[in-house]
């Protein structure tokens, strides 16, 4: 029998413990990291962030020439494209005086629309920024979540937004819960429910339909 999203959350939390996300020490660094991590892993994004350590303030980074920015973020891959994306993001952020406090008061769906209008910001990056920087209760319907819930037996809708909305409707609107849930699903997707799953010892084995 399919269990509730809340049940799965509690099981994962019990097994993996609190994950303490996002793994960056400032909101600005986190937002830049969410662009750098596109199509790569956090280790490579971190190397690029390390190269950017003297520029991790929005005004300072905005003044950096795009070519130099691209050179510094080389370890994250797709660096020319990502430099353009970061510049586009900074251009948008400047409209708010680079002040996150002005953005946090805005309504979640309005903010998502604005973020999605920025060059290089797709659904997942927009939602990561909304959740971890702007503290909005958003479910990140990424590939880890899709793979895990599909295997568990849920009928996961095809579109990103339909899946996101389905989970959001089923859970209380609590930012801390969505923050932890995403981190736990990533932990589970990297530990047990990998592309080639390790079902032995999985904390969800007794409730999983193992739909491969
Ligand atoms: S039992 Fe296997 S398929 Fe099911 S959630 Fe665990 S690792 Fe994934």
Secondary structure elements and their pairing?
Layout: H1 5-16, H2 27-36, H3 42-51, H4 58-63, H5 66-72, H6 79-94, H7 100-104, H8 108-116, H9 123-132, H10 143-152, H11 160-170, H12 175-191
Explained architecture:
The protein has 212 residues and is an all-alpha fold. The protein folds into 2 domains: 5-20 and 139-207, Orthogonal Bundle (Endonuclease Iii, domain 2); 27-132, Hypothetical protein, domain 2 (Endonuclease III, domain 1), CATH 1.10.340.30. It contains 12 helices and no strands. The protein has helices spanning 5-16, 27-36, 42-51, 58-63, 66-72, 79-94, 100-104, 108-116, 123-132, 143-152, 160-170, 175-191. Helix 2 (27-36) crosses helix 3 (42-51). The two termini are 17 Å apart. Iron/sulfur cluster binds next to helix 10.
Provide the low-confidence segments as ranges. none
Helix content: 55-70%
The rounded Rg comes to 18 Å
Distance between the termini: 17 Å
User: How many individual domains?
Assistant: 2
Number of strands: 0
What proportion of the residues form beta strands (DSSP E)?
A: under 5%
Report the mean per-residue pLDDT as an integer: 96
Q: Give the count of helical stretches.
A: 12
Major β-sheet profile: none
Shape: globular
Q: Which ligands occur here?
A: iron/sulfur cluster
């Amino acid at each position: 029998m399919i269990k509730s999203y809340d049940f799965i959350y509690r099981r994962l939390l019990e097994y993996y413990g609190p994950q303490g996300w996002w793994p960056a020490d400032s909101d600005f660094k986190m937002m830049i990291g969410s662009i750098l991590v596109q199509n790569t892993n956090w280790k490579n994004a971190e190397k690029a962030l390390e190269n950017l350590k003297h520029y991790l303030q929005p005004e300072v980074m905005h003044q950096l020439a795009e070519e130099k920015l691209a050179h510094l973020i080389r370890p994250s891959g797709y660096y020319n494209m990502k430099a353009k994306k970061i510049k586009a993001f900074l251009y948008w952020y400047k409209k708010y005086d680079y002040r996150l406090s002005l953005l946090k008061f805005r309504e979640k769906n309005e903010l998502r629309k604005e973020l999605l209008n920025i060059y290089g910001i797709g659904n997942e990056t927009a939602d990561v920024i909304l959740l971890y920087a702007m503290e909005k209760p958003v479910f990140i319907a990424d590939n880890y979540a899709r793979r895990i819930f599909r295997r568990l037996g849920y009928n996961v809708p095809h579109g990103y937004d339909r899946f996101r909305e389905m989970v959001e409707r089923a859970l209380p609107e609590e930012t801390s819960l969505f923050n932890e849930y995403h981190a736990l699903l990533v932990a589970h997707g990297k530990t047990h429910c990998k592309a080639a799953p390790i079902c032995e010892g999985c904390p969800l084995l007794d409730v999983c339909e193992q739909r491969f």
